[in-house]
Each structure stands twice: as C-alpha cells, then as structure tokens.
Amino acid sequence: MSERTSQRKAIPGKEIRHKVADLLEMPREVVMDLPKVTLVGNMQVLLENHRGIIEYSPERLRISVSLGEIIITGQGLVLRNILPDQIVAEGKVFSVSYAE
Amino acid sequence: MDFGRWWVYFRGYVLITVQGTGVERFINLSLTKGIRLWDIFRLPNDTVIMKVLPAGFFQLRDIARKTRCRVRIKQKYGLPFTIHQLKGRRMLVAGAVFFLAALVYLSSFVWFIEVAPQEPLQYVNPIDIQERAKEKGLYIGAAKRRLDVSLVEKHLENSIPELAWVGIQVEGTRARIKVVEKVLLSPQYQRQEPAHVVAAKDGVIKEILVMIGNPLVKAGDTVVKGQVLISGIIYPQDPSLAQGAPAPPKPQDKAQYRRARGIVRARVWYEAEEIVFLTERQEIPTGRKAMAISLVIGNREIILKRAGRQFANAMPRAEVKTLPGWRNLPAPVEIITTTYHEVEIREKSFTAAEALSIAEARALALIKSQMPASTAIVAQAVKTLPGDKEKVAVKVTVEAVEDIGVVQPFKL
After folding, report:
1. Does B36 touch chain A (CB under 8 A)?
2. Does B45 touch chain A (CB under 8 A)?
3. Whole-model pTM over 0.80
4. Which burial class, exposed, middle or buried, applies to A56 when counting CB atoms under 10 A from its CB (0-12, 13-18, 19+)?
C-alpha cells in the first residue's frame, strides 16, 4: 500500500500520458490509472481501479483510489463483490464524493 | 457476480463472521492474497459477515492472526457440504434414487387408454375399439417404446369398417384414440317399409314426378301440410280400365304396398317482417386489445394482471385453461385469460329510404336462412307497414318453388 501511495503523489509525466491517451484513443482511466464509477440508479455502485478499502460500515464506505479516496454514503450498504480491480457495492446510495 | 449462482452452489461456500477493529485491513489483505470475498455486510453489533469459498477459508487464518480479527464459520452452503451430510444418511439417498428411477421406469408404460370420438359414436362400441387395439400391442401396461402407433391406427381402420379415421396420441402415460366414424346412409333410407310421400308444408303443386307409387294430386292442386301426395298403396293396373269400360271396385287385398318415391315441386310462400330504427347503435372494434390474467385456486381468484381499464368500452372474451384432471377429479387450479377488445360506440342514423332498404334486405336474408338449399325464388313483394318517427317496418313476401315431399311410413 505504501508503495502505491507514493506512486500516486508523483505521477511522472502526467501531461505526456494525457496526450498519449488522446492520440491513441485509449480509455483515460486505463492509461492514467483513474477510478471509474458506474452508478445504477441509487442501488448499485461499480468502482473500477480501486486500491483497497479504508473504511466500511453500512452507512459509509471509503475506498482508496489514485486521486485520493472516494466516499460513498448511504443506507444498508453491502459489498456485493470485491475483486483486485473492482468493487461492487449495493444498498441505498445517497452520495458519491471525492476526498483528498 | 462473474460466476453464476449455480457455479457457486456447485463449489460450495461458507458464511463467516469476522470480529475486530481491523476488518477493512482484513478485507484488503485477503484481496491481495487473491482470496475472493463477497456479500460483505456489517451487522449492528459490529461483526462483519461475508462469504468465502472453502479453499480460501483456510488461507484466511493467517490474515486473521495478522489483523487481530476473530473468524468463525456461521453456515456452510453448497453441494460439497450437502453431499457430506448425505453420506451419513445413505438410505435416504438410496430411497430418493429409487423413487426417481421408479418414476422414470413407470412413466415408460401406457397406463390409461381413452377412446375420444369427435362426435358421439353411433355404430361402434369404445370397448371393441380397445379390444382391437390390444391385438396390435396397445393395452394398459404396454411399453411405450415397443408401441407402433401407426400400426395400431392402420389395424383399427382396417378391422373396424365403420371407422373412417383413427389417430392415436400418446401423452405421457395416457393414450388417446381419436376416431371418426363413417357417415353411413341414414336409417330412414335403409329401411324398406312401405311409405307415402306427404307434404312438408302448404303450397300449390307446380309439377309432380312419380318414381314409385300412386299420385294422389296433380299440378295446380292446393295442398296442406301432412297431405299425402304420392301414395305407397298401388292398385294393380286393370287392362279393362284402359279400354274405357266401367271399372269394378277392386278388393283391397290385391293392392301392393311399396315405399313411394318422387319429386313434388310446389309453389310456397314465405313471409318476414323487419323493423329498423332510424338511429342505430353500433359497436365497432378499434383493433386495440388488452389481456388480463387471473389464477383460480379452489374458490379463490387471484388476479395476476389487470387490463381493460384504459378502454371506455370493451368486449371481454374469457378463455379458461385447465390442467388435465385426474380420474373424475377436476384440476383445482385454472388460469383465466380475458382479452378485452376495445369497441367504439357510434350512433348511425339513416334516412327513411335507407332504413327501408336495410329492413328489406334483412327480411330477405331471414327468409333465405329458412329455405332449403334447392329452393328457387319466383317472385317477391315488399309492403311497407305503418311506422313512426323513430322506426320503419316492412313485410316481405316471397314466392318460391321447392320440393315439399317427405317420406312418411304408414302402418298396414
């Protein structure tokens, strides 16, 4: 985890990566290691490119990502599935927000 | 989930409870070790429940020690655990397997034979049909795979001359023999007892053609219903009669009793009255329809799907689907689908002349529906009856020519 955190803080050549992504028409989240969030109504959150769970309770879910952390608040949140690169959370979702 | 419910059931999984402060770390570590966890939920008493494959569970111990969590198995699910449990109850498994095998084995025989005629049978006894079917291998307890349905069908058709067609359907353990009888000449024509030809209705004779019998009427005569037209009692021709000599009355016993035959065409009259209102309500289907479905269990009706409320006017048409009953017990469950066809109600108004022609056409159609097929219309007259502001009335009279003779046996 600590290695990854250091990597995040100093993304080498961010500008170059951005341009390469545009040039090759590749998805940005892949090239730039960005999280991708898919919301299905207020029932399901699909988060790709995560780096682990920081905090979990049925009301609050904090997930580490390359830009900091994503905070999902809601009610009766369940971690339906966890894979090395994606998390599926279900329940009643109130908000999805970023924090440094 | 990337692998389906069935696969998970097949592999088996355990529901575990994890207690401790570092549950998030526990989850992250499991993730990096490649242990799959799913359906993670934190209970109000701060224990977290999650599901894991049996293989992953043993690896969790190490992680639990590192993160100071307590891991306990709460419940085991899936086929491997079920099999393990059943190993202790071999007779139960044997019983289930035996039951299934018996069911499959017994369902390969014909247990019910049903003769299902299209129309009520007149000449053939259903038991005879079953007896004949037995000869070619269709009997209660016959193995289905040895049964040659088309052979039995052919045999039945050939051996029972009264049958025009035989079709056998095997549905599960039930064989249904569908039969259609030949249409044999109706018994009236088969009998040869003496008979007259009598008038079926009132009329004026137009022409008479005698094949057998003694004509009692001639063209131009007015006859009433039931009057004898051609007599079946034939007196011998007396040669002296032809010479113009006075004929002595012949004794009755010399008469011949035959079945009279002939065609007697007569003019007959039909009448019909019809009233047509100047404004008529018409229900015209718009083509839109909706289907409601309800389930009837015993005396209760459960509506599964409502429909038809969106239409202001609709014609419902219900269709009942029932499961096949067993013996004389009807199935307790049936499904009723009601299709609502939307209709538009229109008021149509006619002028008096239009209404008259409609009334005439309807009256004529009514008359034609009463006529035998061979009738020829000779003349027709239309009379307007007194109507009022709302309706018109007509009386149509039709003169037609038809065969009015019917055969009627007589007692000697």
Report:
1. yes
2. no
3. no
4. buried
